[in-house]
Specification:
This protein is of the alpha+beta class. It has one helix spanning 2-13, and strands spanning 20-28, 39-45, 50-57, 60-69. The protein has a four-stranded antiparallel beta sheet, with helices on one face.
Length: 73
């Protein structure tokens, strides 16, 4: 679900028009508890077609990774 959220909001806020290619460096560090208030940080690099994401809360980092769109560059 975290990956789906990252992709949804990435496409909502950035001009991502290329098709999804693959994922890189995916890390699930800490379990998200029902009461955790999450912060999603997104970074889009149009030159490389990479959308980086990080979910965090007051407890620290929960997950992070990178989605690659378009042809491998």
């Amino acid at each position: 679900m975290q990956i789906a959220w990252a992709e949804h909001f990435g496409k909502l806020f950035f001009a991502i028009s290329e098709p999804f290619s693959h994922m890189e460096i995916i890390k699930f560090v800490k379990i998200i508890q029902p009461e955790d208030e999450l912060k999603l940080t997104l970074k889009w690099d149009a030159n490389t077609g990479q959308l980086s994401f990080k979910f965090s809360s007051e407890q620290g980092a929960h997950s992070s990774g990178r989605m690659v769109y378009g042809e491998q560059r």
